[in-house]
Write a structure and sequence with these properties.
The chain is an alpha/beta fold. Among the domains are: 124 residues, ANL, C-terminal domain (GMP Synthetase, Chain A, domain 3, 2-Layer Sandwich), CATH 3.30.300; 98 residues, ACP-like (Non-ribosomal Peptide Synthetase Peptidyl Carrier Protein, Chain A); 82 residues, no CATH class. Helix content is 40%, strand content 14%. The chain contains 40 helices and 37 strands. The strands form 10 sheets. A 7-stranded mixed sheet has the order 2-1-10-9-11-12-13. It has a 7-stranded parallel sheet with strand order 29-28-27-30-31-32-35, with helices on both faces. Strands 16, 17, 18, 19, 20 and 21 form a 6-stranded antiparallel sheet that branches. Helix 2 packs parallel to helix 8 and helix 22 runs antiparallel to helix 24. The longest helix is centred in the middle third of the chain and has 25 residues. The chain is globular and about 95 Å long. It starts with 25 loop residues before the first helix and ends with a helix. The relative contact order is 0.06.
Length: 1131
């Protein structure tokens, strides 16, 4: 144990810290938190929106739930991992080593790491970015007994190839190769409904698997380096080391208890992530992460921003490359400015980016840690110094010794010594009789702030990229130097996203370069350079097969040394790498500048840039990058997701750069002003990326292509995808066997989905109160909860919207847990068949709501709708489908306005994946109606505006807008009308639609389209003046209100905590664009749009089919509604 005095962690009303005096192991601290902090959050995530819940509340995973899941995982592992093993290292470790090889989401991954520990085994997170040989090396070095694999095929292939190398290189027999199983997913680990259930489960497993306390010299956890030797090196962590990781937060510059830290960017398999999961046990910090799902979310600048924003993370931890991407977008920069601290670690942040962000007010902080020793810097730091953003301060618990550099007395190499609270787990030196770990980093003290240090680079020349990943150049340079055309080589890339190499040719080759240069012809010099690169390319391919993916060399990153700048050598005849890189700095920087827009020149730009030619070019680029190391038989489908087939961020950069080069050179597009960052994240299939490229050329500029998503080529591609999806789910309908619909009968048995959503709650309420409805089957999507919790969930939804919660006990209601995208909805055979015999009506009201997703992400919803269609056909039931007026977002493609209640062109619905999915669904229903006699009503629902008790989600755009008024002193005005409709009125109309006669059975056989909006619109200005009077604020033009909102957001870093409208600022900015760039004059806009630029639509058919909507006295929205909203919002 460390001898440093132990202070007590800051207490909180919500978190009682465990003793930090060494009396508890990390696993005992978990038990402490299970007993004392069971309701305190450990993880926090923002779930994906659904139709039933468009603005879901953040989900907190508490310590009680997490620790129970750890025990559940321990039991699961004990049951599935074979007891016997032939791995030789077992006896040495005294506990089985279980490796994890998976791209997984944070909650189940970190839970599994702790579960392995609780199963009295040793966890070993292995980076899935390693090569198969590196994985085999790590398995052999440690003596892994079992490997938990990710669910994606790449992980399983990686393990299969690693197993082959275990046989070939280490003579493993089939029996000796570690057994494998799939890593537990969220639903495997998080089971219990109540805290009582959790306590019983933990008690039972604790008795079944007694906790063993490992000896002080045993290994409790394995991590691994990124490759300071030929392969990554396993780093064993002892129990004392793990305990120090857990308790080192007591030396932080400020309290972390109850604070929310975004870990969205941090790779779960990285030591940076593992360190955090241990320290959480002592601090009460809350980690904001992505929601658990398969496949896991691939971090991008936008989705990390959204996840951190929605969870309210005040601290952000990121790798430099993500911060560099954020720096290009003003909205992201404004958000970073408002954080308490933005930590970067794992590599250097670009100096220009850092300076610019710091000058703008971003609280940047440098974090410094080592896989071999843990967190070295004060974290989080007590102060944020804008003029020292790239300096760190050693934490008080570290015993550090500084060795001056022989070249520069102002630079030092830190050596971490034992005797502090950060004991190295690997020793490679001794200072004054004290064992220590020489970091091989070079640091320099700040000229103004004593005790603040900047990392200059690696003393041992290891290259640290801006992504935080490392390249060890030694072995790769040695391989290159074996090439007969090469005299010597030096790799570079510190602080850059990718590595490059300077190659000095042998004398014969140099003479040819001298001849080419003396000719004075740039073409001859370029031809010689290309010829030389081709000669050494087989060696580069060998290097790339050996290196981790982030260290691979692309052909364009080969710099050939000039005869006028020969390499310099040491007395040992080794290259003076630092001096050579310094000498070639101008060429290196020029190479990186050029590479931004110039890669893969061997792929010619197309002569024509129509859609098919653009796709063909993109296909060639993508395959040249992603299939570089694959066999000739491998192909990539036009709709294959690059990142789901093994693509990574480096490859995405090369695809982007290749396209940029072709646009610049082939299409003469000025790409220098492009602001889209890496658009490959947005358009991650050949199909969508090809359409994007075609749109850029069609619009004549890169920025226009980025901003103009409605180009003909782009829209045509989207439309083709929509039609293809509709066709896929419109095959082989079962023709209705009778022209007589059971809906003509007075009795009604209704199946509905989406019953817990804001509108669905009131539909269910209405059905249960209706005397003509005999029974209601409510299907609730399957989740982690068990069946009994469905009733609780429905009851809570009733309470939230002011509906009588006792209705859940109604004998008419049958709640069923279901998976809507599975055949028979995942119900038991007898349940499904019993329901099928009774049905007369189906209300399909559940749908995922996420406007950032593409159409394919909604395929499970569409598949579920097709099952609903089949069920309606076989039971001759009326199908009522909830569509959306959002389907009209592409109103510039409209032939008629206002929009009639009839089928719409796919172009109109092509704006987002959500609206595309609604169009596809409408088309499937139309096809089923015309070919199979489906009786159906398609309800395009407008803006639902709250329940009778005023319940209206505070985070939605209008509630957030109104709630901003007290802070801004104003509310926006608009003299146009709104047709928003209360949720209970929606429900009454849905009930009316159930009586829709099947008048089209003999004639057109088409569905009935209805637009469900308020039949008696009111002017927004009337409500705005009432709000202004009630809140004592001014009523101003929308653009004035928006300017005030933006101004407050820039001035006050913490404004977002008070003004939720700032969190969805882009939505309001999009509305403002309609005001500024709307359709012609204000008078014309009044004719085409409602207030806030909402689409104007007709609703005659809805009023014809609904007596509720047809009532001339149906109440308009007024002061009573407004007062209920304001009361619910706390105003």
């Amino acid at each position: 144990m460390a001898t440093t005095s132990i202070s007590t962690a800051v207490s909180s009303a919500k978190f009682t810290p465990p003793p930090l005096d060494g009396s508890l192991t990390v696993m005992q601290m978990l038990d402490w938190n299970f007993t004392n902090n069971s309701s305190h959050p450990l993880f926090l995530y923002a779930p994906t929106s659904t139709d039933a819940d468009p603005s879901p509340k953040n989900v907190a995973v508490t310590w009680g739930e997490a620790v129970e899941a750890v025990y559940t995982g321990a039991k699961l592992l004990k049951d599935q991992i074979p007891e016997s093993t032939n791995t030789s290292a077992d006896s040495a470790n005294k506990a089985k080593v279980i490796a994890i090889l998976s791209h997984s989401d944070a909650v189940p991954y970190y839970t599994t790491v702790l579960s392995i520990l609780r199963a009295n085994c040793v966890p070993f997170p292995i980076s899935p970015r390693n090569s198969p040989k590196a994985v085999a090396h790590l398995i052999n070095q440690v003596g892994v007994s079992h490997v938990l694999l990710g669910y994606d095929q790449n992980m399983q292939q990686l393990m299969e190839r690693a197993a082959e190398f275990l046989k070939e290189d280490f003579e493993y027999t089939k029996e000796k190769i570690p057994s494998t199983s799939m890593i537990p997913v969220f639903e495997d680990l998080y089971l219990s409904e109540t805290q009582h259930d959790g306590k019983e489960r933990v008690k039972k497993i604790r008795e079944e698997i007694p906790l063993k306390t490992p000896g002080p010299k045993e290994n409790q956890v394995y991590l691994h380096s990124s490759g300071s030797t030929a392969f990554p090196k396993p780093i064993p962590w002892t129990p004392n080391g793990v305990q120090e990781l857990t308790t080192c937060v007591q030396f932080a510059g400020r309290s972390l208890t109850g604070k929310i830290l975004s870990l969205h960017v941090v790779p779960v398999f990285h030591a940076m992530g593992t360190f955090h999961i241990f320290s959480a046990a002592a601090t009460g910090i809350i980690y904001a992460v992505f929601p658990p799902q398969i496949p896991p979310v691939v971090p991008s600048p936008q989705n990390v921003f959204e996840g951190a924003t929605r969870t309210g993370a005040e601290y952000v931890l990121s790798v430099p490359s993500m911060i560099e991407a954020w720096s290009r977008t003003p909205v992201h920069v404004d958000w970073l400015i408002s954080r308490t601290a933005v930590f970067y670690g794992g590599g250097p942040l670009d100096i220009d980016v850092g300076n610019r962000l710091s000058e703008q007010g971003v609280p940047l902080c440098c974090a410094y840690g080592l896989t071999e020793a843990g967190v070295i810097s004060e974290y989080p730091s007590k102060e944020v110094l804008s003029d020292a953003w790239n300096y760190f301060k050693f934490q008080r618990g570290v015993n550090v010794h500084l060795i001056p550099s022989t070249d520069n007395p102002k630079t030092f190499e830190p050596v971490i010594l034992s005797g502090g609270h950060c004991t190295p787990q690997v020793f490679n030196t001794t200072i004054d009789g004290v064992d220590g770990y020489s970091t091989h980093d070079m640091i320099e003290e700040h000229p103004k702030y004593k005790g603040y240090w900047k990392i200059l680079g690696r003393a041992d020349s290891q290259i640290i990229h801006s992504s935080g990943e490392k390249t060890n150049p030694g072995p790769l340079e040695s391989m290159m130097n074996q090439d007969p055309h090469v005299s010597a080589s030096v790799m570079f890339g510190h602080g850059k996203f990718q590595a490059g190499i300077i190659v000095e040719p042998v004398e014969e080759e140099q003479e040819q370069f001298i001849k080419a240069e003396s000719s004075g012809s740039p073409d001859e010099r370029e031809a010689k350079l290309e010829e030389f690169r081709n000669k050494i390319w087989p060696t580069v391919e060998k290097m790339n097969a050996y290196a981790p993916r982030h260290s691979r060399i692309f052909k364009e990153m080969i710099l050939v040394a000039s005869p006028s700048k020969p390499f310099t050598y040491t007395a040992k005849n080794t290259t003076r790498n630092a001096a050579i890189i310094q000498e070639y700095t101008p060429e290196i920087e020029a190479l990186y500048a050029n590479i931004e827009e110039s890669t893969q020149p061997s792929i010619p730009a197309p002569q024509q840039w129509d859609l098919e030619s653009s796709k063909a070019f993109v296909r060639a680029v993508v395959e040249s990058v992603l299939l570089k190391d694959k066999s000739e038989s491998d192909t990539i489908g036009d709709e294959d997701d690059f990142f789901q087939i093994g693509g990574d961020s480096l490859q995405a950069t090369w695809i982007r750069n290749s396209i940029m080069r072709a646009l610049r050179d082939g299409a003469k597009i000025d790409t220098r002003g492009g602001t889209a960052g890496n658009f490959v994240y947005e358009y991650h299939t050949i199909e969508t990326l090809g359409a994007f490229v075609a749109s850029i050329v069609e619009n004549g500029s890169f920025d226009a292509g980025v901003e103009q998503q409605g180009s003909d080529a782009h829209v045509e591609t989207v439309v083709q995808g929509m039609k293809k999806m509709a066709e896929k789910y419109s095959k082989d309908f079962l023709v209705a066997s009778s022209k007589t619909s059971p809906t003509a009968k007075t009795r009604k048995v209704v199946l509905m989905t989406g019953s817990t959503g804001g509108v669905g709650v009131h539909i269910l309420d209405r059905l249960l109160e209706d005397s003509t409805v005999e029974k209601v089957y409510a299907l609730v999507r399957r989740g982690k909860d068990n069946k009994d919790n469905i009733k609780t969930k429905q009851k809570e939804a009733f309470v939230e919207r002011g509906v009588n919660p006792e209705l859940v006990e109604s004998p008419k209601l049958v709640l069923l847990e279901a998976q809507l995208s599975e055949e028979k909805f995942g119900l038991e055979e007898n349940v499904f068949e019993g329901m099928k015999k009774e049905l007369t009506h189906i209300i399909a009201n559940a749908w995922r709501v996420d406007f950032n997703l593409g159409l394919t992400s909604f395929e499970s919803d569409i598949k579920g709708l097709r099952y609903m269609v089949d069920l309606a056909l076989t039971t001759r039931s009326l199908l009522v489908f909830t569509s959306s007026v959002g389907i009209f977002q592409g109103s510039n493609y409209a032939e008629k306005r206002p929009f009639p209640e009839s089928p719409v062109s796919p172009k109109v619905a092509s704006v987002s994946g959500y609206t595309q999915s609604k169009w596809v669904s409408e088309q499937i229903i139309q096809n089923a109606s015309s070919t199979a006699g489906l009786h159906s009503v398609i309800v395009r629902l407008g803006q639902a505006c709250g329940s009778p008790n005023g319940s209206w989600n505070r985070k939605e755009w209008l509630p957030a807008l109104v709630r901003s008024a007290p802070f801004l002193g104003c509310i926006p005005d608009d003299d146009r009308e709104i047709s928003w409709i209360p949720a209970d009125l929606v429900a009454r109309a849905f009930r009316d639609f159930l009586d829709t006669p099947n008048v089209n059975a003999e004639t057109q056989r088409n569905p009935s389209f209805v637009h469900l909006i308020h039949p008696r619109p009111v002017q927004w200005s009337t409500l705005a003046r009432t709000i202004g009077s009630k809140l004592n604020v001014d009523v101003v033009p929308f653009t004035t209100w928006l300017e005030k909102l933006e101004e407050v957001g820039k001035k006050d870093k913490n404004a977002e905590e008070k003004i939720s409208a700032l969190r969805i600022l882009p939505s309001y900015q999009g509305m403002a664009a309609k005001y500024n760039n709307g359709s012609g004059s204000h008078e014309q806009a009044e004719l085409e749009e409602e207030a806030f630029g909402m689409t104007l639509i007709k609703n005659e058919n809805a009023k014809r089919l609904s007596k509720t909507l047809a009532d001339p006295d149906v109440p308009q929205l007024g002061q009573e509604d407004l007062m209920r909203w304001l009361a619910y919002w706390g105003l």
